[in-house]
Amino acid sequence: MPHRILLADADAFYVAVARLVDPEGAGRTPLLIVGGSAEHRGVVTSASYEARKFGVHSAMPMARAVRLCPDALVVPVPMEACGRKAREIRAALEQFTPVVEQASSDEFYLDMTGTEKLYHDEPLAQTAHRMRETVRLATGLTVSIGGGTSRVVAKLAAGVAKPRTLAHTGRSDGQTVRRSATGVDRPTVRPSDHPLPGTGVYVVEPGSEIDFMRQFSLADIHGVGPKFQERLAKLGLRTVDDALGRDLATLTGWLGKRAANWLYQRIRGIDEAVVAAHAGAKSISRDDTFSRDLDDDSALDEKLLWLVDRATSDLRAGGLLARTVTVRLRDADFTDRQASHTLSRPISSDRAVLTEARKLLARLRAARRVPARLLGVALSNLLAGEVPAQLSLLEPETQGSEDTPKDRAIAQAIDELRERFGRDAIARGRTPD
Ligand SMILES: [Mg+2]
């Protein structure tokens, strides 16, 4: 039986939340940019569709964004409200299936497999439309929903479902804008291929995955990083269609067994990764596919710092604590490896998570020391629990992988600075190139 996977992705999430919390100011201004202040070398977290027309996009230095769009109102990221809204979206989605996995601050995978009888064989697209309306009524926010038999298809379908303006300007809701080798923001969609794009829901029917995938470039597929793109381009493979024209033996000869298998499956819309199978398996993760393979321990440690920083701020923005830390590595030859550790007490500070993540990375590197193409950090075994506002001074300081009152105070201070000045106002370590 084919899987039925949906991806619900909030539309211009940070901008929409900023408008909800300040209806008289941000709510009334078409030209709105959310992010850090130009004076503090902040960057754009997200911009309204109107501001994007001036060339403003996420991850752009705010000073440049303000030059491009001088009439825009710039407001800081409403971090706390974003966490609250993300929880509300999730609660609305959980009315439809218990299997909801939060993939980023505003993206949720849902596994609807086996719910057919529950919904009296209603077409999945129709359920998705009801879901969208439920989220809108509960939260005041809109989501775009993509569907299909796998995560890779659902993710690309959500890009097609986005309002037209967004489909053409790429992701700008706080995610790093990835640019493909062709210089086009992903996901690239040829509008002419879709009679009804941008209606908020797009479901790819089982059996039509390959036809659906044909319209994308290889760079649109999550996990095809800049270096892999370059290698594929040298082989004449730029689009999914190019790669579909090659058999597995040819791809294996060119790319090696693992990379060939991985690509061969993705371009056919096949992705065996499941949506967190039960409520306890919810996780928050961050990964980074490098522009070149990394073998240097200090370079990998810098990436690890950045990933932990991002994952723990998502964790705290969601009002969550984690007990399990997982580090994932993809070796240069596409071998995927991971190591996890579950702690007796839940943590949320970047220092405590980093301590644990470093041990795990060292263990993976000791077992096999080859250049890495991807590094990821996942936090799971999540518990709801706010960082206490009043820190107990009597709580003993602990060493290693436990949050200390000091850790929590530092984490809270970082969150507050970011709320005032934007996500990139403060960072431990360097941001990736
Ligand atoms: Mg979004």
Write down the Rg: 21 Å
Number of helices: 15
CATH topology of the largest domain: Alpha-Beta Plaits
What is the helix/strand order? EHEEHHEHEEHEHHEHHHHHEHEEHEH
Distinct small molecules: magnesium ion
Overall CATH class of the largest domain: Alpha Beta
- Seen as an oligomer or otherwise, the chain set is single chain
Helix content: 25-40%
Number of domains: 3
Strand content: 15-25%
Main sheet makeup: 5 strands, mixed
Describe the structure.
The chain has 433 residues and is an alpha+beta fold. It folds into 3 domains: 192 residues, Alpha-Beta Plaits, CATH 3.30.70.270; 55 residues, 3-Layer(aba) Sandwich (MutS, DNA mismatch repair protein, domain I); 144 residues, 2-Layer Sandwich (Dna Ligase, domain 1), CATH 3.30.1490. Helices cover 37% and strands 20% of the residues. The protein contains 15 helices and 12 strands. It has a 5-stranded mixed sheet with strand order 5-6-1-7-8. A hairpin with a 4-residue loop joins strand 10 and strand 11. Helix 4 packs across helix 5 and helix 13 runs antiparallel to helix 14. The protein is globular and about 60 Å long. The chain starts with a strand and ends in a 12-residue tail after the last helix. The C terminus is likely disordered. Bound molecules: magnesium ion. Magnesium ion (MG) binds next to strand 1.
Any descriptors?
alpha+beta; Dna Ligase, domain 1; 5-stranded mixed beta sheet; 4-stranded antiparallel beta sheet; 12 strands; globular; disordered C terminus; binds magnesium ion
Summarize the structure.
With 433 residues, this protein is α+β, with helices and mostly antiparallel strands. The protein has helices at residues 13-21, 49-52, 62-68, 79-93, 124-139, 151-161, 164-169, 209-213, 226-234, 240-244, 248-255, 257-266, 297-317, 350-367, 405-421, and strands spanning 5-10, 32-35, 44-47, 73-75, 100-104, 107-111, 143-148, 201-203, 283-294, 320-331, 336-347, 372-384. The protein is globular and about 60 Å long.
